[in-house]
Each structure stands twice: as C-alpha cells, then as structure tokens.
Specification:
alpha/beta; seven-stranded parallel sheet; 11 helices; 45% helix
Length: 307
C-alpha cells in the first residue's frame, strides 16, 4: 500500500477521501449496521448490505437506494452467515464480481448475537453459536478482506462492533466474546501499523433487535429459537429507551475522522457509565480487586423494570 494512504494517527481527517469506495457492513440490514450504511451513503460511499436476513436486506436496499440513486451510488445486498468462513468467502467473491474495481473504504464487522446465557449453563452449541458470530465472524473478515484492503491503492478503515461488555467486567458467554472482539481489534491495530485505521465500537443499550438474534440461528447451532413474550417486551424497551442507532453511526464516522480507537457509545440518559465501568475494572486489575459492574438505573429500567 502506498505511503500516501497511511493513516494520520489512526485517522482519516478528510472523510471525502473515502468517497467513491465501498462500505461493507455486516448485520447491515437493520439497527446500527443500517445506520452506518445510511451515513456511509451520505459520505459518498457505495453500500454493501451483508446480512443473514434476506427479507430485511430487501427492505434496507429499497430505503438506501432513495439516497444513493441521486448521488449515482450503488447499493447491493448479499446474504451472508458471518460465522461460516465459506459464506464469507462467497460474499467476497460476489462483491469482487459486482464491484471489481472499487476499493473497500470502510469495512464494518457489526453482526452480533445477544445469546448464550451463563458460562456454566451454556451448552457447547451455545458457545459455538456466540463465538462463531461475535468473534469468528470478525476474524473471518479480518483474514479475508483486510489483505485486499492493504493491496488497494486507496485509504481504508476497519471497524468492529463490540459492546460495553467488552470493556467492563464480563458477564456470560456474550461478555466473553465481546472482550475477545475488543482484543482482536487491539491486535489488528498493532499489526497494521497505521496502514488502515482501526476502531472498536462499544455501545450500551441501543434501539436494535439484538435480543431477537436467536430467530436466525443456523441449524448447525441448534436452529432458530422462537421469541417469548418476555423477549418481545425487552425488544420494546430497547426501542423505547435505547439510543438511536444513528447516534452510534455518527460516533463511528467521528472516530474515523479523529482517530479514536475505543468508541464509548453511551446513551444520553447514562452519561459516563461505560467510562466508569471500564475504570472500575481497570482499578480492580491494578489494585488486587474483584470483578464488579457498577449499577446503572438506566440499564436496570431496560432489563429489570420495576426493580
């Protein structure tokens, strides 16, 4: 990769230099992923919606094309199971065939599942499912897409969506994988040495469908799991109380511009909570403490209403 495209302290201060390239976003048909693609189109990037939900892909493509067509930008949607290396390679081949001479300016590994339960009670297929999506899904893209980005004659950025659970004391299988996602991004940043910018998004409660992620669980991991009334009520509270996905998208592009690696996407109703959780964890590590998660009235309102 030419030196002129190395990042300036992990930053691309002039976002217009990314325009004309591809924005590939996994989990891109809804939630944070869709919001990032919507912002990418506004910044002049072609959009690749990579998602496991074919119906949601069609809906997202129709909405994105309204803004893309007026700017002569392309929007393509491709079904992918990020936990499957074969599926990721098929995605890579399709993109290369449909957009052969367009550089990848933004790669966002956003697909994730909120599942698994506790570390003691989780079954082997639960571990495989959550690790497969939340960790190996990111690793597959790092292994197969980043080399192409390094070869292209253009600047680029790599972003992965972790969680506040990737920075504070972990809970359950989900928290374990989100810590691993942060670690993967830290390792990638050090390996790339500024040739691409690297960032990890760590939100708390966002208005997405993540708690419904079992509905698209692949058969090799036990198959889809139906949602319960309690799950649907939690989805509603996420939508009612969680931060808008567009706010996360704004933070991602600001981080690409500023060079921030850790993106602490805190809800406006819970300012400083992720920062405090990370600080409490680090204080425990450095001062012979024990794992502890400071309580949050906001998060309790979402997960345990009436408590």
């Amino acid at each position: 990769m030419a030196n002129e495209y190395a990042t300036d302290n992990n930053a691309h201060p002039d976002l217009s230099k990314l325009a004309g390239g591809l924005a590939i976003v996994t989990g891109g048909a809804s939630g944070i992923g869709y919001a990032i693609l919507e912002a990418a189109v506004a910044h002049g990037l072609h959009a690749v919606i990579a998602d496991i939900d074919s119906d949601a892909i069609e809906e997202a493509r129709d909405k994105l094309k309204r803004g893309a067509d007026s700017n002569e930008l392309q929007v393509i949607g491709i079904e992918v199971d990020v936990s499957s290396e074969e599926s990721v390679l098929s995605l890579q081949k399709t993109i290369a065939e449909q957009m052969p001479n367009v550089p990848i300016s933004l790669l966002v590994c956003n697909a994730g599942v909120g599942a698994g339960g506790g570390v003691v009670g989780a079954r082997d297929i639960d571990w495989d499912f959550v690790i497969g999506v939340n960790l190996k899904g990111v690793a597959h893209f790092a292994r197969h897409f980043v080399p192409r980005m390094l070869e292209q004659d253009a600047p680029g950025s790599f972003v992965a969506t972790s969680s506040q659970d990737g920075l504070c004391a972990a809970q359950g299988v989900y928290g374990v994988t989100k810590h691993a996602c942060v670690a993967l991004c830290e390792a990638l940043y050090q390996e790339l040495q500024g040739r691409l910018s690297v960032h990890v998004l760590c939100p708390n409660v966002v208005g997405t469908n993540i708690v419904r992620s079992g509905t698209h669980r692949p058969e090799r991991f036990g198959g889809p799991t139906p949602t319960s009334p309690a799950t649907e009520a939690l989805v509603t509270r996420f939508k009612n109380y969680g931060m808008p996905p567009s706010r996360c998208a704004d933070m991602v592009f600001k981080a690409i511009q500023s060079g921030d690696f850790y993106i602490l996407a805190e809800a406006e109703e819970d300012p400083g909570h992720i920062y405090n959780q990370a600080k409490v964890r680090m204080d425990a590590i450095l001062n012979h403490g024990r794992p502890f998660r400071p309580p949050s009235k906001f998060i309790s309102r979402v997960f345990r209403p009436g408590s």
